[in-house]
Amino acid sequence: MRIIRAKDYDDMSRKAANLIAAQVTMKPDCVLGLATGSTPIGTYKELIDKYNKGDLDFSEVMSVNLDEYKGLTKDNDQSYNYFMRKNLFDHINIKPDHYYLPNGMAENAEAECQRYDKLLSSLTRDMQVLGLGLNGHIGFNEPSDEFAKGTNLIKLSESTIKANSRFFEKYEDTPTSAFTMGIQSIMQARKILLLVSGKGKAQILREVIDGPIKPQVPASILQLHKDVTIIADEDALSML
Ligand code: F6R
């Protein structure tokens, strides 16, 4: 695991955007695996900035997202589909048929998981961007007794629902389940870029990097990937 130390959130975002930009420049038709949540917002802003300056072209880029809440339409302003358009896709020249997310409204969950897995096996991700959950989740693969393989519909843990509720008007509105890319699919990306910011993530980041590899800390499996870069700020690295 390569660890890049960033001064703060903005520095982490700049450094992450530089690596993603290098990937897109080196391989204009690359496949990116993208994440939502508060962590990558600054990174996406930096990418938009580079695009506006004429330094980046996303016209051949494809992207697949990690997850989507169950029960939210893609136009619900809390859905991850909406998030991606608002925070990135609407501001760059990625083609509308070049980005994919699970369909939160799929009636048949099993069929939706199979559809997403098929898609993932047809698109080898060159770079997978990840954030880190307070409980060590990646995507929405929550602590469990085994590492999930493919796409699955997951019941979110109490701590994740609580963390996500900050984006919803009422706690009761926070979705309790989500479709997520499985751990095996995440590990199949050629390169992984894990972004971590803030003191609140310091303890779990230490477990991810230094602790035993176990499904109770899902991100610990990243220790087994051959090309992982962690960009974390000083607060997040304060326990290492
Ligand atoms: C989002 C995702 C989640 C988040 C994690 C951290 O697509 O897959 O794993 O990355 O919950 O969220 P933030 O960045 O809001 O702390």
Keywords:
single chain, 240 residues, alpha/beta, seven-stranded parallel beta sheet, three-stranded antiparallel beta sheet, binds fructose -6-phosphate
Main-sheet strand order equals 1-10-9-6-2-3-5
Q: Compute the separation of the termini in Å.
A: 14 Å
Order of helical and strand elements: EHEHEEHEHEEHEHEHE
Number of separate helices: 7
Biggest sheet: strands, sense, closure?
7 strands, parallel
Averaged pLDDT, please? 97
Query: Outline, from the CA principal axes?
Result: globular
Rg calculated over all Cα atoms:
17 Å
Give the tally of β-strands.
10
Ligands, ions, cofactors: fructose -6-phosphate
* Proportion of beta-strand residues: 15-25%
**Structural class of the secondary structure composition?**
alpha/beta
Uncertain runs are none
Helix content: 25-40%
